[in-house]
User: Fold these one by one.
Assistant:
Number 1:
Amino acid sequence: MKGNEAVAHAAIRYGCDGYFGYPITPQSEVLETLEALMPWETTGMVVLQAESEVAAINMVYGGAASGKAVMTSSSSPGISLKQEGISYMAGAFLPALILNVMRGGPGLGTIQPSQADYFQATKGGGHGDYHLIVLAPSSVQEMVDFVGLGFDLAFKYRVPSMILADGIVGQMMEKVVLPPFRPRRTDEEIRKQCPWATNGRTGKRKRNVVTSLELESSRMEEVNHRLQECYREIEKAETRCEEIDTDDADYLIVAFGSIARICAKAMELAREKGIKVGILRPITLWPFPKEAVRKAADGKKGILCVELNAGQMIEDVRLAIHDCIPVEHYGRLGGIIPSPTEIVEALENKIIEK
Amino acid sequence: MKQEIIIAGFGGQGVLMMGKILAYSGLMDDKEVTWMPSYGPEQRGGTANVTVILSDDRISSPVLDAYDVVVALNQQSIDKFSGRVKPGGILIYDSNGIHNPPVRSDITILPIDAMEATFRIGHPKAYNMVVLGALLEAMPYKLPMENVAKGLMKSLPERHHNLIPLNREAIEIGRKLLSK
């Protein structure tokens, strides 16, 4: 099935309580598939097409505040519209899942694939000092797996998670194994898991307040420190990446999402030519796998960052290794997808012959 | 076994659907599969193409620049993809309306008249199934017909399952275009 369809199936099977969305190419199949599957008749999951992206993200805020497992999905211009709500959720310590199937920008841009929202996703996106947990799937199977992982991490740390996919993963069809059905949590279970949620006072518990507003500066600073402590914990425990043949390699390619797959093909072609390349694929873009990149870079002659943008992740790579070896960027813009041969040529021209 | 295939033509010719049936047939034959379409406005009348990869092993890139088999259903697709057939590979094209046929000596070029064959069935919508038949016949990897039948069941919505016999007939006619 398609990556977008797979997300819809995975959400229902996870026991998701609500999806609030608004159609935009290349991710409309998420909403369409959910509507076709009609989970409100089976699991009771709410599926709602809101009047706009802004409405959808604020519905997510509301659902999350009551401890429900809720999500939304959109593509780049729509995700920009959601940024205010995302920042508010981060400030209010709310768990939720947001899927961005990236397309080319800026502005309305193009409907073709892109990875140009890396900065927006990993550095905050909205206002204020905050991060999302950002997962980058490179296959339809990971689109499925990251729905569960994204929700689990969001609830564990009370931080919104984002799946940062692109038009390729969203539109392509592959073989998938879907997880078993899990029932939605009962109100009792939600009360236990989310003692902070505003889901009605039972007995004599203190009033819960979910807000990102704090006018007393010293208390606001405290809230900010709590957020930062939480981020440090996530950095320690939840950094993920995949390495392919990095041990014997002379050169390293760092790429995420679907582009890492194209790089894997480029790696095969390069190795046929006798060029020893390895690939490091960050799976969590935030927290960025700094340690792994530093270790993988050790002893290499150079790094090529391949991204569908003008050079965004390359900044994190250079920071991770303190520029101790040459790092170059190769990317295509505007929805053009580089071919494996093109990537090998870039490696030869930008790194090897330099 | 690994087959890297691209099918290209006009939007509306059934290019994506044909790729989908091929991918599902491969899935039913226990292969790893990837189906990567051109999407968006192209589906509605421009040029459309779909890359299908069938493999015994894990598939790396869904996007390629050289193919084992190219199926080109209009002049633009021939112009664009005939140079991207791997040496020793296969290029199948529908010869209708082609004024500039492909010329390469290092690949097998197979012109077919799928349009005429489709008219013989009297069901113009089965055009893509005729082409699929020709592709299945020419492809080095021989997909068992029973798995193609399962692929049809999987990829067609149930309300269209009554059309499966017609589709199978069209596939057989397509096969005969290239079986000697």
Note: The radius of gyration of chain B is 15 Å.
Number 2:
Amino acid sequence: MDSTVASTGTEGKTWGGGNKPLKASYGKMMMWFFIVSDALTFSGFLAAYGFSRFKFIKEWPIADEVFTHVPFLHGQELPMIYVAFMTFILIMSSVTMVLAVDAGHHMNKAKVTLYMFLTIIGGLIFVGSQAWEWATFIQGDYGAVQTNGGNILQFGEYVTVDGKEKFKRISIDEFAIASEGVRAQHERKNGLWFVAEESLPPYTVSEIYNGLAANSNILVRTQLINEEGEKTVLSREESLKQIKENGKLVVKGANLKVNEYGTSLFADFFFFITGFHGFHVFSGVVLNIIIFFNVVLGTYERRGSYEMVEKVGLYWHFVDLVWVFVFTFFYLV
Amino acid sequence: MAHEHKLEIFRGLWKFKSNTQKIWGVLAFLSFVTAIEVILGIYKPEILMHTWIDPLEGGFFATIGNIILSPIVFMKPLNLIFILLTIVKAYYITWDFMHMRDEVKALRRMVVWTAVFLICYLVFILLQEGGYVFSVYNADDALITRDF
């Protein structure tokens, strides 16, 4: 009977076990450590974005010119407004989350239920906004021509607004002269069975060139950023020459391969970083829904502690925290 | 369960009666900061768009000086303001929404210092390397050709 030592004589002493030097439960502490590692993942992405941007610092797209759309306000250039709205929604849902945690401390089931519900709604609005933002980005607005070297040439004209000369972008739809032509799309059934062609761009480069030649007001803008922090606009002769000799592909919108806004890396990082963040928000919403139903069913009421709300709350705040950085480094800086 | 909250922010300048009130106070502050960022981002005041001092030139000590002063020598003041305001926001989200203010010092340091140290390291390495690759691409004897 005495072959196993049941008592070490250290009970109640420092090394006797059962201590909680951090005064936090196991679950909460692990959530914190998960957050640290996830924060490192996100900073890896953002630092990689910074790396690529520093590499192409003279030709990186200007975010203000890319994200200018707001739902229901067509044709208006409102940079930042919608992203600011999204930021506010996410901070707001963080507030309802922390209010739910606070109500949980007071064992107030009705209030926890209400605030969890509002948090879920906020998360859904954010994910929906994100989807809209992606759709707008993918669809594109002005279109551009990609050169043999992979650079993007955009179009526009000088207009005078309030006595100041400004470069105003023009959509390729407005000036391209569409010509009759037959270009069968390569499909699996009419060509090589093991390759398929992606959908064709809306215009060919020669159609764009004809439109450019016919409209003497239109100029080409390159991606290079000049002294004033604006993209360089080419002269009329240079514009025609570049499109004729150097134009390779008409680009409308953005995907992982081409990007009408500038270097394709910009689109890649946009999809990757906001996508990874959006996935976090999505899983946060799923976790919140699970917790919400547990609250409604009274699981935590019976358990005598709403700590689960607190743990999922930590995750939710972290998602908000990441967005604050994504907002700064993708949209502001 | 005891849940004591520290009910003051800005080092005691702003005290709250209850935790709920503190949450709304922090929300007001965060919204205010975001509003400043958005207004600056839309209007981009001319004075903030160029660095105020040029990089120091000279020998070894000028280089050391540039490294120490790099946020104001190489960064536009506007971007510096954005980054500082972001860190301010991150602080209040972590401290008040995630209740880091109420955790014990050891937990706080484990989480914050680890992350801050590793992130600074990572960012330094990658940005440094990015700047180097830029200089290689754009050197006079660069081996890449350009359309224009």
Note: Chain B touches chain A through 55 residues (CB under 8 Å).
Number 3:
Amino acid sequence: MPFSTPHLRVSRLRATRLRVTLAAACALAVAGTAGSALAAEALNVVSWGGAYTKSQVEAYHKPWMEQTGNQINSIDYDGNVAPVKAQVESGNVTWDVVDVELSDAVRLCDEGLLELMPLDELPPAPDGTPAEDDFIQGTLHDCAVATIVWTNIYAYDETQFPDNPPTTIADFFDVESFPGKRGMRKIAKANLEFALMADGVPPADVYDVLSTPEGVDRAFAVLDKIKDHVVWWEAGAQPPQMLADGEVAMTTAYNGRIFNAIAVEDKPFEIVWDGQVWDLDLWVIPKDAPNKDLAWEFVKFSTATEQIARQAEWISYGPARQSSVPLIGSHAEAGIPMGPHMPTAPENFKNALQNDFLWWADHADEMNERFNAWLVQ
Amino acid sequence: MATTPAAPPAAPPDDGVLRTNDGVPLKTTLARVNRRQKLVAVALVLPLLGFILVTFLAPIGMMLFRAVDNPVLQEQIPRTVALLDAEWDGASVPDEAVFATLAEEMIQQYEVREIAKVGTRLNYEQGGLRSLITKTARTIARRGEPPWRETFIAIDERWADPQTWGIIQQAAPRYTLSFFLAALDLRYDWQGDIVEQPEREQIYVFMFGRTLWISGLVTGLCLLLGFPVAYLLATLPMRQSNILMILVLLPFWTSLLVRTTSWIVLLQTEGVINDVLVWVGLVSDEGRIQMIYNQLGTIIAMTHILLPFMVLPIYSVMRTISPSHMRAARSLGATPARAFREVYVPQTMPGVGAGSILVFILSVGYYITPALVGGRTGQLISNFIAYHMQKSLNWGLAAALGTLLLVGVLLLYWLYNRLIGVEKMKFG
């Protein structure tokens, strides 16, 4: 066995070296995870994409990242909150902050899928007015803080109607006087309201009428008139695209998207404010979000007077805080004064309807069922 | 043996049994080796079995379960539903005891923010009950006191309506068929009888019908287009048939989304085909043909995408058919058409059957293509399953629709087996 000794020695040496390497690798790995646990306070912030997410990135994310050194991953979605339910129920939450519509915020909150928010911690207005008085009424909820007022409007392509442009919500449903394809969101919400207002129901009575079976029939009868002329859209970025492609002559849309196309992309579009159905966008934090404390810090930061005003300079959505209004200047890129383009500007707000989230929380299931049945037949 | 030490220990008894060197009967050794080999084989397929179990069987089992699972009322207001079952006559307003129990349970659930689950569940049965539950719970949690019956009715008249209580009772059982009923456009009324949904909300039976019809049509079109291609592939000289094969396989390897969006580029009203037609003068600029975002778009795109699934099985069967069969038929006096019809085609049937059932089953569950190009009239049942998974969050109904689809496919498969025989099917 004279040969085995050196061989053994070598292998022991090798083993030692291996152990050292392994230990070093382990140490590195541990240091790596520890380091990343400290530095990678990355928030997953989920929002609607396109021009809207850009306004949030410019007004909220960038300043916050600069100030705190944390990172934000901006994730796009189409407003469908099923993942929140799926994530919370499976105990594998990956979204930290989500931008949702009011009816979804209320519904998710009621079902215990969201973190409660300590609203008294929200920053006061610059003049010291407490947040709960500064926010517009109805924009603060147990699990949600609103940032903006946005609205469903319809817009048309000027070049399609050079002489006799549409001016009222009724014109949208009148394909004889205003020929051309229509774009509409593939959902019952807001479309039923549009239809009734076009049929002469004053905004204040819309939900009373919709609460009767005859009222629902009436709304669908109005929709019937343009059914064969409609191209349906689902994501907010689609309607300006459809208008630009000439796929439709007029389309319902979120007002900020159309404004962006007009101001930044120089498109010949025009917004009709008559019969607008306005709504809120709110921040919510899914229950047991991985970084929920940090998420709340971000929500507080982004709903300060200054930040909300900055956002309104990137997209024409109205601020949820009264103290933000005087701070809003001109569009950050196009230099257009933002005031007249806000849904809440008096000129635009004359015939406006607030989306009734309680009514929709109750009736969304049956209305969508009926809407879907109507759609396929 | 121990008592006779003289005997050599290794000497095997001479009983006619074949033994190995160490004296173990050959049969035993063989069995042992076989067993070891079997174990190795099982160990090799174990990862696959585990994979199938986790990613396939378990989700299907969970889906089947979710379609009948109905835990909400039993978990949230168990004593109320028990009391209703035991004491309520089903026609009048329940007595104070029921109201008091419900009040107590509602306040309890309100405080842990779970009461809206009850509202959401009841809202599937009748719109409006969601707010009734949340409103009542909110009110009584803040300032509610006995007598509960009067308090409830003062909050909302509907608590005095036996129908409300009937619906609660119908929605209570731990396992329910109501999602399956909803998936068939039926429902329980408040007295527990099965009735049809209001006509304007009936949709699923129609959608199942449309799904079967479009799947059948797509299968037929694939067969019509695929059979000649497969025939060419099988009969052309190697050089040409290889090129043709690449033409068949290239789209097959291309991403489904790319192929679908290519069809959008081609077919849309401002798209290539319409542009050409306008340029040639066949249609006017205003009269551009709507070929996409409707049923036609779904049928065209699905037929194209599923075509290789028809061509390949038929081709592989045709390759095995000897040309001498046709020559024999011809030499016995058959015309080419008759020889083809009576000798060649019957031999391709295993491939035709395999291709057809493959295409049909794939198209019954098709989702992404109809979603992208189907518009309003080209949606299939899977798009509604996705809708209930993602938008309405009614997972019970989505599961019931999915289960019905699965049962339908299995039924068709069984029928196919009875009529044609699965063992005759040849994929290649």
Note: Residues 213 and 364 of chain B are 9 Å apart (CA to CA).
Number 4:
Amino acid sequence: MSNESLDPRVNRLKLGEAGEIVKVEEGENWNIYEVFHQEKRGAHHEHVGCVHAPDPQLALVFAKEQFGRRKKCVNLWVVKSADILAFDVEDEDMFANNLEKTYRDASGFKVMEKINKFKQSK
Amino acid sequence: MYGGGYIFDEPNKKQLREEEQHDEPEKLAAFEERIAKGEKIEPGDWMPAEYRRQLIRLIEQHAHSEIIGALPEGTWITRAPGFKRKLALIAKVQDEIGHGQLLYNAAETLGKSREAMINDLLSGKSKYSNVFNYPAETWADVAVIGFLIDAAAIVNQVANAKGSYGPYCRALERICYEESFHLKQGHDAFIELATGTPAQRDMLQDALNRWWQPIMHFFGPPDKVSSHSEKLMQWKVKMASNDDMRNQFLDAYVPKVWELGLTLPDPALRKNEATGRWEYTDPDWDEFFRVINGGGPCNAERLQVRKWAEEHGRWVRKALMRPAERKTFPAA
């Protein structure tokens, strides 16, 4: 192509030098790390997305640029996606609760009723 | 920015394939029921092959649009009028590249690697939003892009953020938050010129005249000729029709242009108060398809710049490579 760009920097690049076909090899964009950010001290780290990086240190650098540049953020964790162990989504039913679970809920224990009944009986 | 409302067809124009919709009727029924209930689909869930294919196409094109969309504006960083405008433009362009990466990751959860997507962009197989095949000739073009094209993209992205695929919705939520600043700084630059000297107003009017057709093209061809929308809307891949989104955009932004005493180059443009719909002259759709297929003023330059960047960045990527690392896909 002729150098007719409106951008003087583009005109300086010898475009087309790379040839018509440029191919990125599979894996050339490194590996994928999951990113967890902490919005304020004392809060949980929450999953916010992923970055591509060759190692954990650079993953942190890229994560700071990608997820720490706009909203408030005080800390970041990164972990390789492959190292995340999760249940199979097909097994979701294992989390289904028994209908009757009041024995493990705070609301399942009615102490005030007993206290009031006791006070009234006095 | 920059999810165009329009999902371009792949070159072979493959239509929704009936057999794939019916391959596992029970699972398909359960899947469609979940979507109808408003549940999100996550990467490990069963999904019809066609849903996966269409989502990859949509999200990938959206990602490419962010990356290529940074080029016409990036051109103006060195020439931005004033320090504050330069800072804002640098921040905006950085955001767009960040959005591209968020979206590539969302598409990767569906099983297509980022490298494969980049290769399809470079080879011309996958498309990006057509507006970026036009040049930003003056600073007023940057104001028009930052105001009206970002506004159009927001209409599209806010709709898509209510879609059915979890990772895409989460990426869009973050993107929409960041876009609000893009729109505001674009509007501010637009107002500055509109309320400035006669020369500034002329420059802005000229930019509006040149960008109006690409903006009308932005949401894609009219509903009457746009194919296979129904299934995509049922699956909440596509959240609103091209014409509905275009109408929503015109309704919100044409008054904001007119109130400044500027004009838009379409004498037929007006709101029909009886129907609530905007009426306009159909833009030249042959031109739209000609530009998509490589015939626009900047198609070649945009892809050449991307190729240059890939080629010249390769040694850095290689130098940092850990060969023992096994490549994986994102979890969510």
Note: Chain B has one domain: 13-307.
